[in-house]
Amino acid sequence: VYGNAFLAMPAFAYTFCTALSVSVLKVLHPVRPQQPVVFFSPTYLRTLDRFWKRRGLKEVRLSSGFILISTALELCESVHVYGFWPFGTDLQDKPVPYHYYDQLSPHRYMHAMPEEFVRLLQLHSKGALTLHLQPCSSDNL
Predict the structure, then answer these.
(1) Cα–Cα distances in Å, from 141 out to 84, 94, 130, 138?
(2) What is the distance between the alpha carbons of residues 122 and 42, in angstroms, rounded to a whole number?
(3) Contact in structure between 132 and 81 (CB atoms under 8 Å)
(4) H or E segment at 54?
(5) With contact defined as beta carbons under 8 Å apart, do 9 and 27 qualify?
(6) Is the pTM of this model over 0.85?
(7) What is the number of helices (H) and of strands (E) in the chain?
(8) Rounded Cα gap, residues 97 and 47, in angstroms
(9) Smallest Cα–Cα separation from 74: which of 105, 106, 47?
């Protein structure tokens, strides 16, 4: 559906990511050789981590979603964020999975999702991005 959009992989973010990212690349390339795959630079990821920690974000590591949002803010004129919700239920009190693709719960010592969400709300209030909390309707398209 996204055509040949870039696939960003955190190959050098943490040791456990390297082999997995390379495996994805090896499987994907024969099937979709035209699909551009990019690996985040370890230097960029360290710099991004320091940037947010200096601004009070206290967590072991940034979530992949927060890394991508931060990168989008650097590269795009307009950033819209949907699906970044750190709570177990939505505004209508319906259950919300942590990931859309599995039933895993967040690792409570790894990510500080509510803290990241507060930063996104701050960026939204300053006009740096648009945070969408409700499902999109056909009127919004």
Answers:
(1) 19, 24, 14, 5
(2) 27
(3) yes
(4) helix 42-54
(5) no
(6) no
(7) 4, 4
(8) 30
(9) 47
